[in-house]
Design brief:
CATH superfamily of the largest domain in chain B: Alpha-helical ferredoxin
CATH architecture of the largest domain in chain B: Orthogonal Bundle
Largest sheet of chain A: 5 strands, parallel
CATH topology of the largest domain in chain B: Fumarate Reductase Iron-sulfur Protein, Chain B, domain 2
Structural class of chain A: alpha/beta
Helix content of chain B: 40-55%
Chains: A alpha/beta, B mainly alpha, C alpha/beta
Distance between the termini of chain B: 15 Å
Order of helices and strands of chain B: HHHHHHHHH
CATH topology of the largest domain in chain A: FAD/NAD(P)-binding domain
Largest interface: A-C, 44 and 41 residues
Number of strands of chain B: 0
Largest sheet of chain B: none
Number of helices of chain B: 9
Distance between the termini of chain A: 22 Å
Number of domains of chain B: 2
CATH class of the largest domain in chain A: Alpha Beta
Strand order of the largest sheet of chain A: 10-7-6-18-31
Helix content of chain A: 25-40%
Oligomer: heterotrimer
């Protein structure tokens, strides 16, 4: 039997003016099991709280009902009060007689009557309350960053700076990501490599950071504070710990016809390669699709020239198990495939390039050594046409994306400006739908391209590009002048839309995080929780969450690190004790609950049950992980056998409230 | 047909929603007969949206459109300007006495390479 | 149906903790009135609402039951209100099958910012229930003491 105490608060005159608090207290005092009642001006004051504590001690109360303001206001306060008095904090129920009674009613009799009913419902509920203990789970003081682009690098550096261990998993042989392929950055035009490579070196030299390059996340288990991750280290056929990155093997390798993906296929590399000079880790990797030794067993040149003896043709993929407290997703983006855009002749002419390819064509470390040359005949182009919004802002029924890719306006202005600066004899046309330049010094930058560098900005989309006699005929309309233009261009640059990396979707499944229809990760709240996913312990950094430029990516990366540090700084995580619980004796193993759980908190286990006549039966029953469960209760209703219940909001408690109200 | 109803009729016949247009001009960029037309595909979309249908109906542009559907194919937002032009043309043709092609004109226009289908389609396009 | 003169219906409102309960609090903060017939029960999410609770309320003599949750897409638990929406659709068709006025049961999406909407909804709902009169079909007389 419970011994219940009822405390009615006046809230000054907020409640007392319309509710007869004395009558409420006296009436509720007659309810069964209520052994003590009281009314006081300010229950939440220290004096009021002391009254509650004393009453709990004196009358050995096992549950208390406080008729006061909204539980959203002071539930936590009164739970602490109960805890101070040695009562389980979850033995407290609040009847909301201010926001939902005294403030909205004017008639004293009506309001008092309603307050009594609300109080009765709370008493009925507290009858069935059980002491709940918030589960504790330890936090592994180590973070995993998936993706080694600028987002991952910045997040890792910031987390390591706070003293926590960080692992970066990067699927490419080197970290650096897209930023390492870029020549200059807008709007300051500083050299991308000059600002990125020092950060890459910082990562390499930081004792707290460990890089798993040429690796992928293979499996993720566990929950916030305790993720159990399997990392697949792909065989690079070079012993990472022995390779000194001298590059002797890459020079001597006889297989020279391997498309260089770092230069987006604009030139070739050797079958054993280091992606670029500043690669981190600076370790060679063998491309197994092209290496003669791996394919036919005849060659072995690299092994002969390697002074360190790092080449290992028999290397196998390796699985590494590691525990993490938090996981950061920084999987980044890719330009979309333009093969469906026949009108721009991308697959018909090598002189139609994407903006990222153009970036490599102008990069000093690129295939042309920084001299702008047409890919087809290695001649200097004199007329260049830039086409914006290729694949962005479409209706979604075609092959494009519905969103604005955000970065294209600015990098196109940058390309146009740099081209005019280096090659003033070049005519540069930019075809745009809208020029979108929100950002610090962005619009000034675009205006400079037009005013100082004489880039021709034309409003109108290009309708057709056709290769004719070694030139590219560009047909477009000038909407402002209302005429159709036919431009004979040497080079056409397409600002392709960007899309999330294809590795993101399988990863989202592994992490049980949400994605939108475009495969961008969904943040927990678009305004207030922009770097957290809805799944506890999973954080989002960079373009995996939406298109972003470098400054935005870096700020999000640091914000993300702050959130991770906040989590890792805790020794233990206190869970929400109001979680689902399965009655194993009633569970029939149907999996209905597992399917509706948005957090993947429910798993099924085979369990032995003692049956009559000393037999043992193995049954499949639901098992809720209280550290993952957020207590929404979807499973409780989905359960056909009624085995699933939610602590703190149990079926019987809610039914009791219903009964009390309808009495 | 009253003037106010023209827009409604054009939209109903074509099934096009000109509000979907984001004014990128790719339709006019792709149009192979641009120079022949007084009003260009992107203008058709905005003029229909503004209810300036009569101007379009009296313009030869309606007949200059090749109905090649390049604009429909290229439009990034599936606005389908050619269907709109076709609908404006139908608005003209459905009015009495607006036949633009008489059967006795046909023999002089015939040439060897002209497919049968073109004649049928010409009747559809230019007569009531 | 005969409307009794001073009929005061009993209305149970289930409100999700994150949006609608906060919305109800907001209408209190702004002193927007709605009838005292409405008694609110707090649940963590609209998907916690077992349709059995609604039937239980009708059985015990409630004249109307309303479920308020976050707007679709805004659920604190990401998908709970979608489950609630489906379950309620089924309940509605069952109520019509039983011959109960399905207006006695309603689903509304009220965000934490929509205090005025909460009050307006409750005013409207109580008016509807008052018009419909006492719930006699589903009430279990054995529960009446």
């Amino acid at each position: 039997m419970q011994r219940i105490g009822v405390f009615v608060c006046w809230c000054g005159s907020n409640i007392a003016a319309t509710v007869d608090v004395k009558k409420v207290a006296e009436t509720l005092g007659k309810e069964p099991c209520v052994v003590y009642y009281e009314n006081y001006q300010y229950m939440c004051s220290e004096e009021g709280q002391n009254k509650i504590i004393n009453a709990i001690h004196e009358h050995k109360l096992s549950g208390i009902v406080i008729c006061s303001c909204s539980p959203r206001m002071h539930e936590a306060t009164f739970r602490r009060t109960a805890q101070k008095a040695g009562l389980n904090p979850y033995m407290v129920e609040i009847a909301n007689i201010r926001e939902q009674c005294s403030w909205i009613h004017k008639d004293m009799a009506t309001a008092t009557e309603k307050a009594i009913i609300l109080g009765r419902a709370a008493i009925a509920k507290v009858h069935l309350n059980t002491p709940l203990q918030a589960g504790e789970s330890p936090v592994v003081k180590r973070a995993l960053v998936i993706g080694g682009g600028i987002a991952g690098i910045q997040t890792a550096l910031d987390i390591a700076d706070a003293g926590f261990e960080v692992d970066i998993v990067e699927k490419k042989p080197t970290i650096g990501g897209k930023m390492s392929q870029i020549d200059k950055t807008f709007p300051t035009l500083d050299c991308s490599a000059c600002i990125l490579t020092p950060k890459m070196v910082d990562v390499a030299q930081n004792e707290k950071i460990h890089i798993y390059s040429y690796s992928e996340v293979a499996a993720v288990k566990g929950f916030v504070g305790n993720f159990d991750v399997t990392i697949k280290r792909k065989a690079r056929y070079v012993k990472e710990e022995l390779c000194t990155g001298c590059g002797a093997c890459t020079e001597k390798c006889p297989q020279k016809k391997v498309p260089n993906d770092f230069n987006l296929g604009l030139d070739n590399k050797h079958a054993i390669y280091i992606p670029f000079a500043q690669a981190v880790p600076k370790v060679a990797t063998i491309d197994p699709d092209y290496c003669m030794m791996l394919k036919t067993g005849k060659c072995g040149v690299c092994s002969k020239v390697c002074a360190a003896g790092a080449i290992d043709y028999k290397q196998q993929d390796e699985l590494v198990q590691q525990q993490y407290g938090a996981i950061v997703v920084a999987t980044g983006y890719n330009p979309i495939d333009l093969k469906n855009y026949d009108e721009f002749a991308y697959s018909q002419s090598p002189d139609v390039v994407t903006s990222l390819e153009f970036e490599r064509l102008t990069n000093a470390a690129g295939p042309t050594g920084g001299v702008l040359l047409r890919p087809s005949d290695r001649q200097h182009p004199h007329t260049i046409v830039f086409v914006q919004c290729v694949g962005s802002r479409e209706s979604g029924e075609g092959c494009g994306k519905t969103y604005c890719s955000k970065i294209c306006c600015m990098y196109t202005a940058k390309h146009a400006m740099l081209t005019r600066e280096k090659y003033p004899d070049t005519e540069v046309y930019v075809f745009y739908i809208d020029v979108r330049t929100p950002g610090k010094n962005f619009d000034e930058f675009y205006r400079r391209a037009v005013e100082e560098y004489g880039v021709h900005y034309i409003k109108g989309m290009v309708g057709k590009v056709s290769p004719e006699n070694g030139k590219l005929m560009v047909q477009a309309s000038d909407l402002l002048d209302n005429k159709q233009l036919k431009i004979e261009a040497d080079l056409v640059v397409l600002a392709a839309a960007i899309e999330p990396d294809p590795s993101a979707r399988p990863l989202a499944t592994m992490l049980t995080t949400q994605m939108d229809t475009n495969d961008f990760f969904t943040e927990a709240h678009p305004k207030l929780r922009p770097v957290e996913s809805a799944t506890a312990g999973i954080f989002l950094s960079g373009c995996c969450q939406g298109p972003k430029d470098i400054p935005e990516t870096v700020s999000q990366a640091s914000a993300c690190a702050a959130k991770v540090i906040g989590l890792l700084a805790k020794d233990k995580l206190l869970g929400n004790p109001c979680v689902a619980e399965s009655n194993e004796l009633m569970c029939n193993g149907c999996s209905s609950c597992e399917k509706v759980c948005p957090y993947g908190a429910i798993s099924y286990v085979d369990k032995e049950f003692k049956m009559p006549n000393r037999t043992i039966a193995v049954r499949r029953v639901a098992n809720v992980n209280p550290a993952v469960c957020q207590g929404c209760g979807a499973c409780t209703v989905a359960c056909p056998s009624g085995a699933m219940d939610l602590k703190g909001f149990s079926n019987s408690q809610i039914m009791a409230e219903v009964d009390a109200i309808c009495k | 047909m009253e003037q106010n109803n023209f827009k409604e009729t054009v939209l109903r016949i074509s099934g096009v929603n000109p509000k979907k247009c984001m004014r990128c001009g790719k339709c006019s960029g792709a149009c192979p007969n641009y120079d022949e037309m007084e009003f260009h595909p992107h203008q058709f979309v905005s003029m229909v949206e503004n209810g300036e249908i009569e101007k379009l109906m009296t313009s030869p542009s309606v007949y200059k459109c090749l109905t090649c559907f390049a604009c429909v194919e290229r439009c990034p937002r599936q606005v389908e300007p050619a269907k709109l032009i076709e609908a404006v043309r139908l608005c003209v043709i459905r009015q009495a006495g607006q036949n633009h092609l008489k059967p006795d004109q046909i023999p002089e226009m015939l040439d060897e390479d002209l497919p049968q289908q073109a004649i049928v389609s010409a009747f559809r396009k230019f007569t009531k | 149906m005969q409307v009794e003169k001073n009929f005061e219906p009993t209305v149970v409102a289930f409100c999700c903790n994150w949006c609608s309960y906060a919305g109800a609090d907001l209408s209190g903060n702004n002193r927007i009135q709605y009838p005292a017939n409405v008694k609110i029960i707090r649940i963590p999410c609209s998907c916690r609402l077992n349709p059995m609770f609604i039937l239980r309320a009708f059985q015990r003599g409630a004249d109307g039951v309303i479920l308020c949750g976050c707007h679709p897409g805004d659920c604190h638990y990401t998908s709970g209100n979608y489950f609630a929406r489906r379950r309620m659709t089924l309940l509605f068709s069952m109520l019509s099958f039983l011959g109960i006025e399905k207006e006695r049961c309603r689903v509304e999406w009220v965000s934490a910012a929509e205090g005025a909407k909460f009050a307006a909804t409750m005013n409207d709902f109580v008016a509807t229930i008052t018009r419909l009169g006492e719930n006699k079909k589903l009430e279990d007389l054995r529960c009446k003491k």
